[in-house]
Write a structure and sequence with these properties.
The structure holds 2 protein chains of 2 kinds. By secondary structure, chain A is mainly β. Chain A contains no helices and 11 strands. In chain A, strands 2, 4, 5, 6, 9, 10 and 11 form a 7-stranded mixed β-sheet that branches. Helix content of chain B is 0%, strand content 45%. In chain B, strand 5 and strand 6 form a beta hairpin. Chain B starts with 8 loop residues before the first strand and ends with a strand. Chains A and B meet through strand 5 and strand 10 of A and strand 3, strand 7 and strand 8 of B.
């Protein structure tokens, strides 16, 4: 069974930085595009970013463009999300998700909570 | 990036059928076949139940079905069961190589 395990969440002050990781196992990580999706407390889902299977292309939501960077290390089966200039409105559970075949996600991690607060 | 519009809540009695709508524009729902639906129980990660407008992943009940007309996609749950009571989200690929989710719908089984 595919496994995605996020880590790196925590409490950070506005303007700070944080790097999330997503360790993937039990599938050929290097064959699949990967995404980050977030959910603010009590709110709906928001797509954050995507990266192609080989890391050659990245895509971002307007709300995070220029502040967040998605990357991957296929040798370590790990997806990353580098977050800088964090804002209170970035507070959310961040999920990593595996692409099925186009723009849908068949497997999700358990999520990691990022809280931006002074 | 405005979200796709879903009704805040939909309800039905056990055994009935309900339909959740997901309205976008020609730049997302109306322009592509990449519409998906997710079920999310409280405190859990979302679960994919429909993709590419009408397809169900392996293991998903055939009580869930999807369709699309113009800029509006729909999810129908037939034979409503108590376990279907939770939140549902649509999503669609959008021009500019981004993804947009719907506002979410809470389904209540009466």
């Amino acid at each position: 069974q595919v496994q995605l395990v996020e880590s790196g969440g925590g409490v950070v002050q506005p303007g700070g930085s944080l790097r999330l990781s997503c360790a993937a196992s039990r599938f050929t990580f290097s064959n699949y595009a990967m995404h980050w999706v977030r959910q603010a407390p009590g709110k709906g889902l928001e797509w954050v970013a995507a990266i192609t299977y080989d890391g050659s292309n990245e895509y971002y939501a307007d709300s995070v463009k220029g502040r967040f960077t998605i990357s991957r290390d296929n040798s370590k089966n790990t997806l990353y999300l580098q977050m800088t200039s964090l804002r209170v409105e970035d507070t959310a559970v961040y999920y990593c998700a595996k692409r099925l075949q186009s723009w849908e996600f068949d497997y999700w991690g358990q999520g990691t909570l990022v809280t931006v607060s002074s | 990036q405005p979200a796709l519009t879903q009704p805040a809540s939909v309800s039905g009695s056990p055994g009935q059928s309900i339909t959740i709508s997901c309205t976008g524009t020609s730049s997302d729902v109306g322009g592509y076949k990449f519409v998906s639906w997710y079920q999310q129980h409280p405190g859990k990660a979302p679960k994919l139940i429909v993709y590419d407008v009408t397809n169900r992943p392996s293991g998903v009940s055939n009580r869930f079905s999807g369709s699309k007309s113009g800029n509006t996609a729909s999810l129908t749950i037939s034979g409503l069961q108590a376990e279907d009571e939770t939140d549902y989200y649509c999503s669609s690929y959008r021009t500019t190589s981004t993804l947009v989710f719907g506002t979410g719908t809470k389904v209540t089984v009466l």
